[in-house]
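Lab channel / #folding
Pinned by the channel admin:
"Please post every new chain as: sequence first, then the structure tokens as a reply. Keep commentary short and put observations after the output so the thread stays searchable."

First post following the new format, from NK:
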Amino acid sequence: MPAPRLTRPVGRQGPGAIPHGLLESLDLIVARRASGALPGDRRAAGLGSGTELAQLRPYEVGDDVRQIDAAATARTGVPHVRLHVPERTLTTWIALDLSPSMAFGTADRLKSDVAEGVTHVIGRLAIRRAGRVALMTFGAGTPRLIPPRASKPGFVALQRALEEGVAPDGHHEPGALNGALRRIGRVATQPGLVVVISDWRDEDDWTRSLGALAQRHSVLAIEVRDPRESSVPAVGRLALVDPETGERIEVDTSRRSVRDRFEQIERERREKVARELRRLQVQQIVLSTEGDWLQALGRRLS
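Reply from TO:
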């Protein structure tokens, strides 16, 4: 399917202020959950520079003389060199939902605003300790990959992608989440951190792809919700439009049975997502368009 032209949603409020002090406190928390953002926590293949001793052996012609171990040389009378386990930086893969439903919001901001803020925070934290960050967008045509980059280029690439907006209403992308997860699984060959930011309203089965990722990577599922998605007010006849398909329906919200049925369907949908994430041992963080999403994120990560 050709990619639609992305649009900045009407009513966009932005993610709001992101205090520097809170970013500082989240830094080590995210590093611990990723099991490797700190130097020396993750290993690369082979031998090289690092802090963990891999081998102590007699000196051979061609070895780096700076690796000579004075203590072992003095003890044995034969020059010895120290070889270390090389360290490598952590790569954080962000999968960001750009489907039309992310442009919905009835509280302080849109779901896409919250997703933008979370992407900003995770991206900043990913590059702080010489790590790299990659972005995979989905729900707007073929998943788009911004390859892993470090330092300022990586963060600038994230910012440019976030400025483009989301897919327009009526653009339904079946299996978009599953496709993005599968593609990350193909390109992310080394263990890292995968953060999926979505409203998780994709009806297609994504569990197998997410489970495969969780076998190799640390995975964090961030779900963005709006309060109006879980219930409808009693305001009489109401016209509703599905942003994904553009389908329009009219319902009589004055009927209690209609409101109860709506709440039941939505509750079952959310419970199914949470149940599958628990089964896959993937941590779920639920954020809302109402209130301070950044404080809520910090509380769940701590």
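NK: Strands lie at 52-58, 80-85, 91-97, 132-138, 144-150, 193-198, 218-225, 237-241, 248-252, 283-288.
TO: also worth noting, The two ends are 41 Å apart (CA to CA).
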